[in-house]
Amino acid sequence: MTTTANILIIEDDALLNHMLLDNINKMGYKTEGVTTLKQAREYLSKHEPSLVILDGRLPDGDGMDLLRELNDICCSTILLTAYGSVKNAVEAMKAGAAEYLVKPIDLDELEMMVKRVLENAALRQDYPFYKNELKRNAQGKKLMIGHSPALQEVQKLIDAVAPTDMSVLIEGESGTGKELIANELHQRSERSNRNFVTLDCCTLQEKLFESELFGHERGAFTGADRQKKGLIEGAEGGTLFLDEIGEIEAPIQAKLLRVLETGQFRRLGGTKDLMADVRIIAATNRDLEQMSQTGTFRLDLYYRLSAFVVKSPPLRSRREDIPHLVEHFIKNHNFSRRINKTVTPAAMKALIAYDWPGNIRGLKNMIERAIILSGRRKAIRPEDLSFRSQSNSPQKGVQLSYEDEPSLEDIEKDYMQILLEKYSGHRAKIAGILGISERNTYRLLKKYAL
């Protein structure tokens, strides 16, 4: 999906200004023309163009002064001048100009230059996306693995909603692959050639989260020494995935609702309304409907997000996919590439029978550990698997035993694993037992990949 660039032309020659407007309009871009620095600054106080075509000398000042301001707001600029020289060109490039064009203007050359500057700006913005795509393809990474009825139902829903621009809410337990579903939705959409940007809603405090999502203006808070574009702008034309959206604070919920309803947002400390050409996909392992009824999550935001829901099934409801997942984890594990690892029938039977409170993430962790424990043996045996009791009966005085002296992190991770299995991944119960918030509990689970 492509977006229409907005181009501002600042040229005091009325005839040339009109000619440039007419020519660039025919290229399919939105254009606006002004003739003075004052008019330009008034326009820039309310709008943020994709590209500025700037005359170097204007009636009320030097275009080079404005060029430096445009560089601060990360706007691409083509400088026009009747005083062409190597010195001027070097000064313009140092000040941040993307290109430099000497009058009289060759319209064919200008057309090619406009396209090149906008394409380069888009490539810089999309660099993280293409980098991740190359990495994913190099690793031969598949998205959703398996053929179970539960997974086929998910695929049907993805087939139906992916081609649309509708927001999607993905519900499911931790470790079931909600991000993979979001990625699949993006890959099958018309936005697949643009960025897929992920934001973990649990990891940042409110102000930092707002800055990360919406961006901020210079001086918005202590340490904001320059403008910063947020992830909404980073996902321009693509998809923004908000993982664990149930964790966001009420003020951010209100601003996110505005994005969904109007397609507009403001950077932190900003006064300009910016357009958000982005599809939002959210995921949660919490009951947002229940949270909206108790007032901890906005009901109107829940209704907006839940217009189309995809439920990510737990691994225990798609046991027939476990052999395929095991094969995938072995094939893509660095330590197993020298040895073509297999799994004995007895070990596979045990893997399929287990209820997997940690879901796919838990299976991946166990297989990686089993690969190490199996050493140079070709086959992974039952004794290489580290299952814990699946009993939900009270466990008094849980004992953790180690061959060597464990670190505090070793004990913490193993205790978290025991609680996960005992309470079937119920984060609120685990948080109550540990005496910490659900947000901090989630951070611990993320820290240890549980």
Automatic annotation (TrEMBL):
A Pfam family annotated for this UniProt entry: HTH_8
Keywords, ordered alphabetically: ATP-binding, Nucleotide-binding, Phosphoprotein, Transcription, Transcription regulation
Sequence positions bearing 4-aspartylphosphate: D55
SMART domains named among the record's database cross-references: AAA, REC
UniProt cross-references to InterPro entries, sorted A to Z: AAA+_ATPase, AAA_lid_NorR, CheY-like_superfamily, Homeodomain-like_sf, HTH_Fis, P-loop_NTPase, Sig_transdc_resp-reg_receiver, Sigma_54_int
Name used for this protein in its record: Two component, sigma54 specific, transcriptional regulator, Fis family
Response regulatory domain location: 6-118
Biased segments, Polar residues type: 387-398
Gene Ontology molecular function: ATP binding; sequence-specific DNA binding
